[in-house]
Amino acid sequence: xFTLVLPTWVVPPLHAVEECDRVARRSLELPRYRATSRxxxxxAALVWLTLGEVSPLTQRFGGGxxxxxNSTPADSTATWSSSATYEMARSESWxxxxxxxxxPPPPDDDWRRLGVxxxxxxxxxxxxxxxxxRALAWxxxxxxxxxxxxxxxxxxxxxxxxxxxxxxxxxxxxGAAWDAAEQAAQDQAHRDARWYWEHVRSRxxxxxxxxxx
Length: 213
What we know:
Blueprint: E1 3-5, H1 14-27, H2 37-51, E2 64-67, E3 79-82, H3 86-100, H4 108-114, H5 126-139, H6 151-155, H7 176-212
Parallel strand pairs: 1-3
Antiparallel strand pairs: 2-3
């Protein structure tokens, strides 16, 4: 298999990104009660970075470069690097956080500050957007905590942040207890996103006010 080369703006080390990417992609194959739309959001953000597909919410094309140029994923000596820029990742993160927080979409002034052209944002679940934001915030170094529970956490005996995803399910389908736990997790995610959004929004507005004086 080819070797992934991370863009310089990515803060976590390669082996950590690869571990999260592996777990996130596997989550796409799991039933609803073992992985939720949040995990799908994490996977979408990591696939954009590692495979060069379109970004999760604004559908910006990432692309990438092969070395040597005519390589394929089966070439063990080849390297591949995403062309997703810091500006693209930061703007995608801000869009995702706004949606996860049930906040208004970025105004024109935000796009200018972010250094990218405005782009329409696709409709998605709030929980999916939260997963996208968690992944990008981690990649950008805004948050240190992994966006998804991995085998590393399990080996270190760190409890799952959403234990209902690992709890036994009677009859193969989740019941009222699972639904209540998932709703509580989504409510907590919304509060988390709202706090971060309000914090960033206040700083952006303060910067704009200072620049206008």
